[in-house]
Specification:
The protein is an alpha+beta fold. About 35% of the residues lie in helices and about 15% in strands. It is built from 14 helices and 20 strands. It has an 8-stranded mixed beta sheet with strand order 1-10-9-8-6-2-3-16, with helices on both faces. It has a 4-stranded antiparallel beta sheet with strand order 11-13-15-14. A two-stranded antiparallel ribbon has the order 4-5. Strand 14 and strand 15 form a beta hairpin. Helix 1 crosses helix 9 and helix 3 runs parallel beside helix 9. It is globular, with a radius of gyration of 23 Å. About 5% of the residues have low confidence. Its cofactor is pyridoxal 5'-phosphate. It comes from Paenibacillus radicis (ex Xue et al. 2023).
């Protein structure tokens, strides 16, 4: 296989350069129908926006350029078989859950998963036992599952169909996987990994190992997050004999669009080529930008980086492209710092009560990093009154957006059979009145998209206190009804 080729992209370019008359969809006819003001932005791209015509292959039955592009991706990322995803990692998470679980079957699940995992459990009608990750007491960030917790869960629930984990966390922490893989494989159970934020792992010595190289059975990666494909571009990788690949293919065909975007798929091909041929060098350049930014930060006493000390968690790796920053003096919450940076033209990935998350990549430049440092310097030099909520922010030091309720141990099995919830009535209650009730929806601060409550979970006083704080600080929360009095949807049958 020739890693220097990008077969799908090259075939699209060849087609776009020919003399053709289009009598097929899409209706813009290679950009000819564009509205005039959009031409400078879309015209070149839409020449590549075609459909499944002769020579351009079919994502749902690949035999030519798409097949070759996926085979090259498998070779690049270390899989036995790779599937292109045009609906993001979300569709990969849905497909891998549905391929493993039938209605009523049980899956072990790391608690701090993306909401798409919960949706997958609901579609499957599966049950889940949640395993709570370890939490770094210095920062409040989750660190991943210890192997001991996995062994305990496997012993207690031998009927489990496998384990689904998130690695790395949204904040960039990556746990070692080999001991967990060994525990599962000894019992002939698969490890499913949502590695949405780790498509770049393994391509540079400063980065954590990829989940595939650690022996995971099926891995979903968002190629668009830290690599360079278009948004929604992702891949699903499979290896070993513990995953039924026909099931994966079936569900991907059912869940993905029957009219996939060719520019998007070609961007996956190009991004793979970039990693295959020049990945380590490009990532090294991006890491150098991050290191220079961190050196500049040492000059700004107002702000500090939240970093796990290797002496305490030597086996946990941190993605150098994820930088967590907070106001050392506690004058600004993460949400306020986000707003202040955006007012100065620097847009961050997310904010939580204490910090902002900065995401760098191989495409980050010294110019961008310099602008960010200057914005922080300007914020640091701006007089800020000693806010009434300063004490509250300081109290929250050491808490991220989802560690408020994480304690060691396993949950009881939780049913995600949606038919059960559809038979129950719902009501909307003010936050304070919802304590003790059962949530009717997922309640999800977004980003990062990690549910604070799942359907059927009991609403505790601790949860309500935390949601109240998030609302007051300006967080976006999916599932809640916003307004002067924030409301939570609850199951009437769950009221006591």
């Amino acid at each position: 296989m020739n890693k220097h080729k990008a077969p799908l992209f090259e075939r699209l370019i060849e087609h776009a350069g020919g003399e053709h008359a289009s009598f097929h969809v899409p209706g813009h006819k290679s950009g000819q129908g564009l509205e005039a003001s959009a031409r400078p932005y879309y015209e070149a791209m839409l020449r590549l926006d075609v459909t499944e015509i002769a020579g351009l292959d079919d994502l749902h039955h690949p035999e030519e350029a798409i097949l070759e592009a996926q085979q090259l991706a498998a070779d690049c990322f270390g899989a036995e078989e790779t599937f292109f995803l045009v609906n993001g990692s979300t569709v990969g998470n849905l497909a891998m859950i549905l391929s493993v679980c039938r209605r009523g079957e049980l899956l072990l699940v790391q608690r701090d998963v993306h909401k798409s995992v919960i949706h997958g459990l609901m579609l499957a009608g599966a049950r889940a036992v949640f395993l709570n990750p370890e939490v770094d007491p210095q920062t409040g960030m989750t660190l991943g599952l210890p192997a001991e917790a996995v062994e305990l869960a496997l012993d207690k629930y031998p009927e489990a169909k496998g384990l689904l984990i998130t690695r790395p966390s949204y904040y960039g922490r990556a746990m070692p996987l080999e001991p967990i893989v060994q525990l599962l494989h000894d019992r002939e159970k698969p490890l499913l990994v949502d590695e949405a934020h780790g498509a770049h792992f393994g391509f540079h010595p400063a980065l954590p190992k990829s989940a595939l190289s650690c022996g995971a059975d099926v891995v979903v990666q968002s190629t668009h997050k830290l690599l360079t494909s278009m948004t929604m571009g992702a891949m699903l990788h499979v290896q070993g004999n513990l995953i039924e690949r026909k099931e994966i293919k079936l569900y991907l065909t059912m869940l993905q669009s029957s009219s996939p975007s060719y520019p998007l798929m070609a961007s996956l091909d190009i991004s793979r080529k970039q990693m295959h041929t020049n990945g380590e060098e490009l990532l090294g350049q991006g890491i150098a930008v991050v290191e220079q930014f961190k050196e500049r930060m040492k000059e700004l006493s107002r702000f500090e980086l939240l970093e796990t000390k290797p002496v305490d968690y030597g086996s946990i790796r941190q993605d150098p492209f994820k930088v967590i920053l907070r106001d050392r003096e506690g004058l600004m919450s993460g949400f306020e710092l986000k707003d202040a940076l955006e007012a100065r033209g620097c847009f961050v990935e997310l904010a939580d009560p204490q910090a902002v998350l900065l995401v760098f990549s191989l495409a980050s430049t010294q110019t961008d990093a310099g602008r960010l440092a200057e914005a922080l310097e300007n914020i640091g030099n701006t007089a800020i009154d000693d806010r009434a909520h300063r004490t509250e922010i300081n109290v929250e030091q050491g808490q991220s957006t989802y560690t408020y309720s994480i304690v060691p141990g396993l949950s009881e099995p939780v049913s995600f059979d949606e038919h059960v919830y559809r038979q129950k009535g719902t009501a909307q209650l003010p936050l304070e009145e919802s304590i003790g009730q059962m949530s009717a929806e997922m309640i999800v601060p977004y980003p990062p998209g990690i549910p604070i409550l799942c359907p059927g979970e009991r609403i505790t006083e601790e949860v309500v206190k935390y949601l109240t704080q998030l609302v007051r600080m300006g967080a976006r929360i999916h599932g809640m009804i916003s307004g002067e009095v924030p409301m939570l949807p609850v199951l009437i049958a769950g009221r006591e």
